[in-house]
Amino acid sequence: MGLGDLQLKFLELKEKLFKMGWFDAQRKKPIPYLPERIAIVTSQTGAAIRDMLNIIYTRFPSMNVLVFPVKVQGEGAAQDIAFAINKINELNLASVIITGRGGGSIEDLWAFNEFIVAKAIYESSIPVISAVGHEIDFTISDFVADYRAETPSAAAVKVVPMEEELIQKIENYKFDFKNIIQNKIEYYKDLLQSYKNHYCFKEPANQLKQFYQRLDDLFNLLNKSMQSTLAMKKEEIKKLSLLLTSLSPYNILERGYSISLDSLTNKVIRKINDLHSGQTICTILKDGKFESEVKSISPN
Predict the structure, then answer these.
(1) Residue 23: which of 144, 149, 139 has the closest Cα?
(2) Which of 87, 107, 133, 251 is most enclosed, with most CB atoms within 10 A?
């Protein structure tokens, strides 16, 4: 099929899906600010996956990422991509899905123009980010997806906040909470001082009873207001703290997995290139840890 034929086929499918409402903005799902787990559907050997993982772990080192390696061009590529998206939804494996690849010709990118891929994205209950090629490249998956990223790297930036920014947000909550309480205290101190100087203290005793009742009401109001504000801010901080805890890499130990570190540098071993023969590594398990020496290395 020639370039002109492919372009015509692209435009025909684009028009068809547009009329079906698959591109409508109101059906697009929001991308979560801090996903619990990210699923990436792409080739395991391309530059795209390396760039995305590097950006994700730089911005948020403890982020949980699942990579689903698929063909991204040639015969069977579209079926691979659609199957992976469907399986992630079926097993509810992620909070957001990124699918895409690096740049190339229209023939190279054609898998992302196939109806089967568009259908999988459209039917996904999990938000999908399409990150295909370069900024000038547009595919059918870009129009159907909940968010179109100009490049795979841009998708990684979109889906993961800076860990420092999240920590700063928690600190801001604590600061705001402290200021609210302090302002409430100062306000009621001033109010009590004004009542202290009120005429009722200079009037006969029958007015003093009314003052004490009003004072009790004010103390009750102050107590309820402070308790309500305290409970609300504590709950917000608790939720953010639980979210950070749930994203800790050490939680995977409870599920039977392990974490391996370089014994000298204490750096996490993420890929085969982090290893060398004779290297001593420390492996952390749920109930302890042990050291071992690398005898041989066998890349995939």
Answers:
(1) 144
(2) 133
> Cα–chain-centroid distance for residue 122?
21
Strand bridging mode 280-285 / 288-293: antiparallel
How far apart are the C-alpha atoms of 96 and 279, rounded to whole Å?
Answer: 36
Contact, 41 vs 99, CB < 8 A?
yes
Evaluate if pTM is beyond 0.90: no
What span, in angstroms and rounded, lies between the C-alpha atoms of 230 and 217?
20
Whole-angstrom distance, CA of residue 72 vs CA of residue 117: 11
- CA–CA separation, 89 vs 99, rounded Å? 14
Alpha helices (runs of H) in 36-114, residue ranges in sequence order: 47-59, 77-91
- Structure tokens belonging to residue 15: 């028009």
DSSP 208-229: HHHHHHHHHHHHHHHHHHHHHH
Residue 57 near residue 63 (C-beta atoms within 8 A): yes
